[in-house]
Each structure stands twice: as structure tokens, then as C-alpha cells.
Amino acid sequence: MVENETASTGCGGIRRLSDSRYEVKHLWVRPKARGLGLGRRLLVELERRAADLGATEIVLDTNETQAEASSLYRSAGYESIEPYNENPNANLWLRKTLNRS
After folding, report:
1. Residue 92: CATH number of its domain
2. For 15-45, how does the pLDDT look when each residue is reduced to its tens digit (9 = 90+)?
3. Residue 19 domain boundaries
4. 0.85 cut: is pTM over it?
5. Burial 15-50 (b: 16+ CB within 10 A, else e)
């Protein structure tokens, strides 16, 4: 990535796995912007969008070596589950039940 003033501060996405299950993909915050709560805000927004699309459950995979990410997800209410995919880089799979409003 080229670092410049116009580069993104963070990103993330969701992917539909079924009518009621969505997956968080590639939640990332630029290192210089970490610790400001932006990751949590992005995660909340992704959860809201998934719920708006009909999700009642959201899942993700990560690696426990990414301690900050694992801590964020657990503090946001995610719980460990059995692997739902075959991602060779993941060693931790998490889920959260979403409340639709």
C-alpha cells in the first residue's frame, strides 16, 4: 500500500453466507489510526448492515496471533464456534447473534 493523505483509514465488508448468516470480511484499520475506536465503529456498522439485510447471526474467522482483533471481537460479544470454513490462516472462528430492529 502506498501511504499518503488520501489512503483509507480503515475498511471492512460483509458477505452473505445464507439468508440469516453473514460473515465479516477484512476488518482493518491503518496502524496509525489504531486505538481510536475506529475498528469498533466499523464492526458496529458492518453488524448493522448485515442485520438490515436480514442477518440474525454474524460470523468471522481470525488468527489468535492478532490479539487486538481477537480482543475487539470478544468484547463486542462474539463467542467461539467450530470452524465454518477451511481458511488456512485462521485458527479462531467466532459468532454473534444479531438483534434486528
Report:
1. 3.40.630.30
2. 999 999 999 999 999 999 989 999 999 999 9
3. 10-97
4. yes
5. eeeeeebbbbeebebeeeeeeeeebeebbeebbeeb
